């Protein structure tokens, strides 16, 4: 097991102003910043416990500020904040890791933010110094862009997305089709039984939802989380007492631990069994919210940490 690279992205969209010539305005989100900060801290602690060196990048857009220094567009002395959650900084960070990671390393990217309705693209933070967003297109990261950039990084990779319609990021493999993008059971069956063999993939995707909304936990008393992310944190052994500085907390024994390892499948299994929302629509309660997480298909699993 090699080094661990962590990119945790959290965007609350509170620095978007309301209106100017009918520009795009995203809804504010409350759970995304706690999601990113606590996942970042938890993975850091687990990496240390597994005796794997780690390097982290916490990309945030938090609060109402939209001055050039906050946005990372300041061109005076220095280069502004490179930890701002813009699309440019994300791609820059991925390129940096691409130049450093080796075959034995693990790269984990997490995203808590908006996903575009029906198409699922990640909505990164704006970089307009007047606070208005003239066009959403420049902020979007498509599945193809993210999967391509992550695929260029050597070693094992895991993408974790807590956003609406995030299932569109789950890639097809040699042994499976996307259950979001391909709706025919005959196609899935034919793909599974065709002649191609299984190759162990080095990129997995774990998402909060399929082709539907993801939700924030309404029961939090001091800060919010995504329903998916709070269960993911629980799977990793995270317990954040109210009012306690997260830097002082050590995760407990991860419930997702299988023997001596944590795998992608062990996280997925725990989330499906334990998240607060049901994983499917209930015919007896048709108005009830539901949220179905997805993971990369195929018969293979990937070890993330070994203790």
How would you sum up this structure, described in words?
Helices cover 23% and strands 16% of the residues. By secondary structure, it is an alpha/beta fold. It has a single domain, classed as Rossmann fold, CATH 3.40.50.1460. The strands form 3 sheets. It has a 6-stranded mixed β-sheet, with helices on both faces. A two-stranded antiparallel sheet has the order 4-5. Strands 8-10 form a two-stranded antiparallel ribbon. The chain is globular and about 55 Å long. 42% of the residues are buried. The mean pLDDT is 88.
Q: Walk across the major sheet and give the strand order.
A: 2-1-3-6-7-9
Q: What is the β-strand count?
A: 10
Reading the helices and strands in chain order gives EHEHHEEEHEHEHEHEE
In percent, how helical is the residue content?
Answer: 10-25%
Structural class: alpha/beta
The largest β sheet comes out as: 6 strands, mixed
Shape: globular
**What is the count of DSSP helices, taking H or I runs of 4+ residues?**
7
What's the CATH topology label? Rossmann fold
The percent range for strand residues is 15-25%
What is the subunit arrangement here? single chain
Query: What's the CATH architecture?
Result: 3-Layer(aba) Sandwich
Poorly predicted runs of 5 or more residues: none
Give average pLDDT, whole number.
88
Report, as a whole number of angstroms, the end-to-end distance: 10 Å
CATH C-level: Alpha Beta
Counting structural domains, the number is 1
Radius of gyration: 19 Å
């Amino acid at each position: 097991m090699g080094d661990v690279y962590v990119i945790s992205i959290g965007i609350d969209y509170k620095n978007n102003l309301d209106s100017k010539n009918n520009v795009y305005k995203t809804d504010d989100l409350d759970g995304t910043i706690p999601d990113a900060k606590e996942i970042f801290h938890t993975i850091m602690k687990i990496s240390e416990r597994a005796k794997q060196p780690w390097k982290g990048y916490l990309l945030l857009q938090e609060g109402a500020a939209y001055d050039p220094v906050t946005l990372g567009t300041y061109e005076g002395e220095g280069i502004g904040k490179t930890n701002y959650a813009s699309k440019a900084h994300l791609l820059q960070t991925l390129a940096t890791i691409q130049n450093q990671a080796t075959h034995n390393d693990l790269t984990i990217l997490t995203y808590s933010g908006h996903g575009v309705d029906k198409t699922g693209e990640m909505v990164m933070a704006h970089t307009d110094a007047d606070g208005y967003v003239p066009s959403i297109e420049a902020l979007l990261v498509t599945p193809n862009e993210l999967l391509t950039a992550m695929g260029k990084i050597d070693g094992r990779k895991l993408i974790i997305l807590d956003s609406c319609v995030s299932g569109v990021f789950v890639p097809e493999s040699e042994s499976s089709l996307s259950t979001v993008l391909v709706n025919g059971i005959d196609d899935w069956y034919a793909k599974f039984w065709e002649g191609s063999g299984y190759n162990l993939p080095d990129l997995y995707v774990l998402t909060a939802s399929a082709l539907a909304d993801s939700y924030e936990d309404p029961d939090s008393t001091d800060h919010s989380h995504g329903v998916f992310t709070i269960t993911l944190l629980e799977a990793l052994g995270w317990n954040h007492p109210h009012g306690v500085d997260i830097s002082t907390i050590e995760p407990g024994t991860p419930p997702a631990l299988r023997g001596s390892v944590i795998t992608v499948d062990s996280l997925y299994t725990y989330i499906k069994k334990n998240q607060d929302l049901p994983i499917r629509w209930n015919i007896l309660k048709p108005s009830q919210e539901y949220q179905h997480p997805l993971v990369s298909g195929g018969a293979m699993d990937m070890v993330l940490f070994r203790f």
